[in-house]
């Protein structure tokens, strides 16, 4: 991995490494340098860039990370189609707010119902720990719900705080987000079923079992 932000902005290629998941962190980075880096990486979707109060973090995801991300998106979209929920997939789009000094690129994110400037749901696949608090970034951006997939299970958080305030006034330990066991954005989704199917390595089998679980739950409601 390159050793400085200057290399990232001005060198034609990012560094290579045998490590399948690289992480670059730098502090004291100006907003202008952050935007310069985003412009440089505009046509390179492999890297995830996060910014908060001058701290910049860049992650080069591993193949395992991308496999989980892809399968998660695939299963969620099956759920949307099955439940006839209108949605707008926004992938790993960049969301940033200069005034709030915050920016992030979720692994997956969705608007529910119609397209909005900020997604209703942002999802992060966590295989290695980072140094930047994603929840604080998402609070400042006003993302209603954030999911973390970590150690084969989900951690769900719903925003309760006003993102306009400088610091979280409720649930300060989780930056204004309340930990949930059930999604409020997608209340009909069985999180345990989604977790179980995400651990299945065969994609077709995962889809089959997920759809069977959805069908069984629907039939149970009719009894």
Topology:
Blueprint: H1 5-10, E1 22-26, H2 31-40, E2 48-52, E3 55-60, H3 63-83, E4 87-89, E5 95-97, E6 102-104, E7 108-112, E8 121-126, H4 134-141, E9 145-150, E10 153-159, E11 177-180, H5 191-198, H6 203-222
Parallel strand pairs: 8-9
Antiparallel strand pairs: 1-3, 2-3, 2-6, 4-7, 5-6, 7-8, 9-10, 10-11
Describe the structure.
- The chain has 223 residues and is of the alpha+beta class.
- The chain contains six helices and eleven strands.
- The longest helix has 21 residues.
- The radius of gyration is 18 Å and the shape is globular.
- One of its GO terms (molecular function) is endonuclease activity.
- This is Uma2 family endonuclease.
- Keywords: Endonuclease, Hydrolase, Nuclease.
- It holds the Pfam family Uma2.
Oligomer category? single chain
H/E series? HEHEEHEEEEEHEEEHH
Which strand-content bin applies to the residues? Answer: 15-25%
Give me the number of helical elements. 6
Main features:
223 residues, alpha+beta, 6-stranded mixed beta sheet, 24% strand, Uma2, nuclease, endonuclease activity, hydrolase, Restrct_endonuc-II-like
